[in-house]
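Hi V.,

You were right to ask for the full record rather than a summary. Here it is.
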Amino acid sequence: MPRDDSTALRATWTDEELVAHSMRGDAESFNQLIVRWERPIYALAYRVIGREEDARDVCQETFLRAFRALNGFRGQSKFSSWLYRIALNLCRDWIRRERRAPVVQAPEGVDLVDLATAREPVESIEDLVARHDLSRRVASAMAVLPEEQRTAIILKEYHGLTFQEIADLVGCPLSTVKTRLYQGLVVLRRELSRRGGTGPGPSPAPSGSPS
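Predicted structure:
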């Protein structure tokens, strides 16, 4: 089969199918997993530690470790959740190693939500500037949150994980995730109001739906 056709075919496979082929030594299948998840993993790392170069290093190390440990992946969670767990652990290692708080600051001219979802918005210059300004305000406000609350918001609001997926990912009870998210959003809204911006509001109460 020609290479282009083979690549196009792999792009239609599920993560589980790509993982299975990767385990059998198909390097192109793992490359497709990298193509599929590189942007979200980079965006996750950047939102947690706030430094572009270090986020890129974490992203690369995430896939390197995933490749090395692939035969140990048993499919008990989604492949994406497994990747997120590796990336979050690497981010925490970075924070401990550097002995510094995350610096969450959007790079000039880059919106991380766009980066994570790879979309191409069509908007006016005024809207673009306003959105980037809001992105910087949100990033700055996020930096004041405790790590657990910030991680819950990042995974739920930006990466679309369910409460149960986050609980499985960080290894804590479902109710704890809901509380962290709600409390974090309350603080985030208060910080944004103080800074003159708006952002995600505390819509999901701790006793709400698990999805």
